Amino acid sequence: MVKLNWTVFISQTGSEIMNISKESKIYPKVIYSNNKEKVSKEVEDFFNASGVSIKQIPFKPTKEDYLQEEILDSKLITLHGYLRIIPAEFLEKYEGKILNGHPALINKYPELKGFNMQEKAFIEKKKYPFIGSVIHKVTPKVDDGEIYVTCVIDNDTTSIDDAYEKLKASSFDTWIKFFKEGWKLV
What are the tens digits of pLDDT across the range 133-168? Predict the structure, then answer.
């Protein structure tokens, strides 16, 4: 197990970051959730056993909530289903060291930035013959930063649930690729 000086922000169950850590053997130093009641018991138990704490950050964090020493000390910050806009003042302190995983090919289809892009890609399959995920630098503009890693798959989805599952898998693959090949670029 390798523990990086890495902070994670989540709004959902945390299963993606748990699976990334299991597969890559790379663990964050701390995880912040703005929706801690959604974090699964399995995720909490896994990280507690690994010495990684999951801490609460307010549901609607202010810039002051991000300016904690433990966060400011991080070399890398990643967002995994973290459904919040990060304050520009915080972004300025990190010069590109905050990354977001986005379940849409925003480099190919810029109109898929933002929220609920999975449904759009499924409904308009002819317009979007490929789906996948990207990891990009977080900037003040939503889903607009430099892209570090991309995972592309055919849009052969058969239902909206199938689309979510395939995009979830592509997101996982994208993060694994990032930690195996690209994280030192940041």
Answer: 999 999 988 888 999 999 999 999 999 899 889 999
The pTM of the full predicted model, rounded to 2 decimals, is 0.91
Residues 88 and 106 in one domain: no
- Residues 125 and 181 both lie in one domain: yes
Three-state DSSP state, 99: strand
Q: State the chain's maximal CA–CA distance in angstroms.
A: 48
d(CA 41, CA 168): 20
Based on the structure, what is the number of domains in the chain?
2
Domain limit, last residue, from 94, 119, 146: 94
Using CA atoms in the order 32, 36, 42, 46, what is the torsion angle rounded to 10 degrees?
20
